Amino acid sequence: MHEFDVTVVIPTFKAEKTIGHCLESVFSQPSVSTEIIIVDGGSPDATVSIAQRFSAPNLTIISEPDRGIYDAINKGISRAKGGLIGVLGADDVYKPNVLSVVKESASGDQGIVAGLTLIDGQLRADELYRSAALISGIPFGHNAMFASRQAYQVVGLYDLTFRICADAEWVHRAIKLGVSCRKVEQVFVEFGTEGTSSTNPEEIIAEACSVIQCNFPFLSLQEAKYLLFAVRGWGETGKITELLQKYSRESEIFVQALQEAFHSSIPPEQRKYQKSYLGHLRRMISKVF
Fold first, then answer.
1. Which of 40, 68, 90, 263 is deepest in the core (most CB within 10 A)?
2. pTM of this prediction?
3. Mapping DSSP to helix (H, G, I), strand (E, B) and coil, where does residue 183 land?
4. CATH of the domain at 24
């Protein structure tokens, strides 16, 4: 048994305008044993003092210099005592009763539970949790994701090489390792749009391409960008078959990703590759879970 049902990790830095509403949305969640860990990067404003007003036995506040948001998140995850771990931005809010839904949805499930994200009143355009995401990005909003402690033990912590897209890279690792994901078609979180991940589009594209290269090191940066733009509908898809033929022997999961993302673009004779690689990883992960 875990000490808490859910741990919510909240990384903060100069968040005095939003941290109060963020915490209210967590403390108002009923019927779930919740641990809250705020990991602040040494904010010079009133972020910490506002958080301290919510003094409670289940609230931990850490304030010290860090190496960015994912370093703060890693610190929180390393201290978490909940069976499920969620990450909430300091300018985000949970919808009512979300943690109860997460707890119920995770019953008997030791992988990931993910819901929907609302951004500026609009639903985020999520994707399927599958190999095709390895050439695209994170298939759902990171702050609408709750991963079990076992999943973090298998997948590991966030890679600090990535300043913005470490969440996508983590989910990609989970996909490659066969970690299960249960998608709930319900809004979990209202996402704030003032953070780094919303205000640096050029850096986001560059990091997204680097993540694709991390998944498939044989791709050039230009090829990674081509696939990203093609799968997102920002560019043409005429070279997909060429890339498939060029790298078909490099990685079975690459073939599967292209088959899933661009099935209509791939000739029938190219659709013969088996899913043995994923099957092998799933068998490995079942021994851990």
1. 90
2. 0.88
3. strand
4. 3.90.550.10
